[in-house]
Amino acid sequence: MNEKAKEFIYPDTTVQITGTRLLEIEHCRRIIEYNDIHICVRTYVSELHIWGENLSADDYGNGGITVKGQIKSVEFERLRI
What we know:
By secondary structure, this protein is mainly beta.
């Protein structure tokens, strides 16, 4: 599959970080792992690893989630598609 087709089929993920306590992610496919120190979210083309303390995730609909808590780091891991 060429790059133009991938861009059409797999929408870009939007991540908005507000301070160190709020992170909003659009175009999520599913939550892979969830506990109070680590949340792993799969998007169409990557996995996001959110590390911190007292983390919680809320679904805000339309394929997005909100992560709250003391966010220490965010890692992006590109998937092979």
